[in-house]
């Protein structure tokens, strides 16, 4: 019974925080919608901020798990990198609380929120690094500094998150990702004009 209550609280809180934000969501509303006593929430978490942090942790964990699963289904490094980018945007779109961090300025109020976001970024960089390393080993990619390249790709994708996920359809995002991957794999210059690095 305890696990069911905990899941109900977190599921309810996730939806309410996503819809109304941290500031406008009250513990009374979460308790009412989750059909538990407010004291129960305080017993489990201690504060509304801690409920919010747990929601963020769950969203980040789900994203990493689903991205990793999508990447694992592919065999070629190029396909793995494309799967990473598509999965990141597909599942990030569902993680509204993580997406709303920047817009709400929550990271300034709760430094732990920024830590969760940064940990997610580091996990994404690790996944990209492993893909790039495999690609270099197989001769698919030519990269001088794998970690730097992984961070650059992760930063580029993160830079697009808010605009693409809030303003664009899934079809448009897929089109943008196709163009981005094309640029990443083939560069800007034609074959005849390539400069050796």
Which word captures the global form?
Answer: elongated
Q: State the CATH topology of the largest domain.
A: Tetracycline Repressor, domain 2
Query: Describe the biggest sheet?
Result: none
- Approximately how much beta-strand content do the residues carry? under 5%
Please, what is the CATH homologous superfamily of the largest domain?
Tetracycline Repressor, domain 2
Over all CA atoms, what is the radius of gyration?
Answer: 20 Å
**Uncertain residue segments:** none
- Under the CATH scheme, the architecture of the largest domain is Orthogonal Bundle
Number of strands: 0
Distance between the termini: 61 Å
Q: Mean pLDDT, as a whole number?
A: 87
Q: CATH top level of the largest domain?
A: Mainly Alpha
Quickly count the domains. 2
Helix content: over 70%
Classify the secondary structure makeup into a structural class: mainly alpha
- Helix count, per DSSP? 10
What is the succession of H and E elements? HHHHHHHHHH
């Amino acid at each position: 019974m305890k696990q069911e209550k905990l899941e109900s609280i977190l599921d309810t809180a996730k939806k309410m925080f996503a819809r109304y934000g941290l500031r406008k969501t009250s513990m009374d509303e979460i308790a009412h919608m989750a059909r538990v006593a407010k004291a129960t929430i305080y017993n489990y978490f201690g504060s509304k901020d801690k409920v919010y942090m747990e929601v963020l942790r769950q969203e980040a964990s789900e994203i990493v798990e689903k991205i990793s699963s999508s990447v694992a289904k592919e065999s070629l490094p190029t396909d793995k990198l494309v799967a990473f980018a598509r999965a990141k945007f597909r599942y990030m779109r569902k993680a509204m609380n993580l997406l709303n961090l920047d817009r709400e300025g929550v990271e300034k109020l709760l430094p732990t929120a920024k830590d969760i976001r940064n940990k997610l970024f580091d996990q994404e960089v690790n996944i990209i690094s492993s893909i790039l390393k495999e690609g270099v080993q197989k001769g698919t990619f030519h990269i001088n500094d794998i970690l730097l390249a992984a961070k650059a790709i992760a930063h580029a994708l993160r830079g697009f998150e808010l605009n693409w996920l809030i303003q664009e359809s899934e079809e448009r995002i897929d089109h943008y990702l196709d163009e981005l991957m094309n640029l990443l794999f083939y560069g800007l210059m034609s074959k005849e004009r390539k400069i050796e690095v």
